[in-house]
Amino acid sequence: MSTTPRRVENLQTDKGKVPVYATGIVEQPWDDYSDDDHATWTTLYARQREILHGRASDAFLQAQDAMGMTPDRIPKFSDLNEVLEAATGWTLMGVEGLLPELDFFDHLANRRFPVTWWIRRPDQIDYIEEPDLFHDLFGHVPLLMNPVFGDYMQAYGQGGVKAHGIGADALQNLTRLYWYTVEFGLIREHGALRIYGSGIVSSKGESIHCLDSDAPNRIGFDLERIMRTRYRIDTYQKTYFVIDSFEQLIEATRPDFTPIYARLAEQESIPAGTVLDGDKVYHRGTGEGWATDADT
Ligand code: PHE
Q1: In its keyword annotation, does this UniProt entry include Ligase (predicted)?
Q2: If pLDDT is split at 50, 70 and 90, which confidence band does 188 have?
C-alpha cells in the first residue's frame, strides 16, 4: 500500500496550478496535458519502440507491454500503478523534477518511484537535459515490473540512505554504479548485447550508438571497477558495462559496501574511456569523437 503524502501547497507552473506534496510530490495533472503533449509521447514512444526492437532487453520490452503503456496517449500513473503494485509492489509518484538525494533514496527504499509529471516540448524531442516524463516513464518504469530488478532498485535506495550517512565519496561511488547500471547498462541476452539502461532506451541516438558504434568500450560488469569510473553527463558514454543477468547485479551488490567505500577512498578514480588490464573486453572503443575535457 502506498502512503498518501501531505499536500503542502499549490504550485504555479506553465501548465497551470498543480498540487504539491511534501518532498516535491505532485498529483499527475492528467487532464491538463495538451494535444501537443500527447503527440510528443506518441512520437517518442513509436520511434523508440521501433529502434529498440532487437536492441533492448526482452525483459524490458515485455515488461513495457505487460504494463499496458501504449503509444496513443500519455499513460495515467493511477492505471499503471494498479498493474505495478499487483506485480511487484512498486508505486509511481508524480514529482516536479529531480529530488534531493536523500528523499530520492528514501522513496526507492520504500518501493516508490518518482516520475516527472511534465513532458518535453516538441522542439526538445531529440534531446533534453533534465529527466522528463518520457525518460522516467518509458525508460525507468517498465523494469520495475521485473521482480529481480525491482529488488535491486529498492536495495539501491537502502544503500543510498546508508551512503548518505557515510559521506560524499561514498555517494559518488554509489552514483557511478547507478549511472553505469540503471541509466546506461547493457545486458547479455541470446548471446548478444542488449540494452536495459533507462538513459539509453529513452534516447534515439544513444540506443544506436551504444551497440552499433565502434567508438565506445563495452566491458564486463565489475562492481569496484565501476564505482571508481568517472562518466559523461553531456555526451554519449565512452564506456558501457555489460551484465550477464539481473541476478548477477543483485548478487554482486548484496554485500555491505562500507568496507568497499573505505577501500575505494584510497584509490584513484578511472577516466571514463580507460580500458584496464583486468577488464573483460567485449569491444575496445576506437575513441572516435570523444570529448577531451574532464569527465564527471
Ligand atoms: N549492499 C549495498 C550496501 O551495503 C547496498 C546496495 C544494494 C547498493 C544494491 C547498490 C545496489 O551499501
Answers
A1: no
A2: very high
